[in-house]
Amino acid sequence: MPSPKTTGASGRAKHADIRFKRAYDAPGPDDGQRVLADRLWPRGLAKANAQIDFWAKDVTPTTELRKWFHEHPEQFDAFRERYLHELAALDADHNVTLTELRTRLKAGPVTLLTAAHRLVEHDAHTHLDVLRDFLEAK
């Protein structure tokens, strides 16, 4: 798994701590900042009980791309390229949500949350993988 290449005082690379969890899972002591990375609020999850620190809906795949990937889950590589293109465009526009995510990553662990069922499957690929890689590359 790729990691960011920020340098600490020792001159060695410092790695961001990005984790994944389903939004329905109970918060854990190691979660750090809990960031919902879905465009839609998870069905049946009460906002008052969610314990979500930040909702990063602006940097999730567009509705069109999300629906396309739902219909073509076997085409992760094509999805990845399209989503990276969307993220690069947001970054070029100095998107405030991307800036906020990067600030939170500098402060400590971040757990990206999703309602996606695929997260629990072995070797599943979701938009969280792409978002993590994008954040770590900058």
From TrEMBL:
Pfam families: DUF488-N3i. InterPro entries: YeaO-like. This is MarR family transcriptional regulator. It comes from Pandoraea morbifera.
